[in-house]
Protein: Uncaracterized surface protein containing fasciclin (FAS1) repeats
Organism: Pontibacter chinhatensis
Amino acid sequence: MKRILPMAVVIAAGAMLAACNSSEQQATTTEVQHEAPATAGQSAVQDDESQKNVVQVAASSPDHTTLVTAVQKAELVDVLTNAGPFTVFAPTNEAFAQLPAGTVEGLLKPEKRSDLRNILQYHVYVGVLNADSFEDGQSLGQVNGGRVTMGVKDGKVTVNGANIVASIPTSNGVIHVIDKVLLPQ
């Protein structure tokens, strides 16, 4: 009997340790689950101290509401809020209004998302190119795989014939405001 009692104590102690380890693992797993990041992307990060990124700058502009809506519908917000760097040729609302009637509304439909993405990605170059770095005839490879041609004449800079009317530095690149929508070939 003396041998059975110590053996029973050892077994009971082992069972208690196993139960404690299981509880600790469950607590650790629960903690990890609570600490897991939300499914939102970079655009969900709240930062009121840093310089605004290209999406934040465009969203704060009353002249770019159509562009911002298009970026949202194309699900490109998180991409354009990342570190970049990006050079974005940003058409104004007036530029979008120059397109044939119904074009913008059609592109905003869910079934046209890939066409909209293609057009928007045609407005983005990976890297930072300031207006003074462009050369006449310079060709740039855009995110969608297409190419745009820069024009520089008498101090005016164009991209595929669209005038760059303003340039705005951002935390992840530069925005060049343009007066026409660029359409891929």
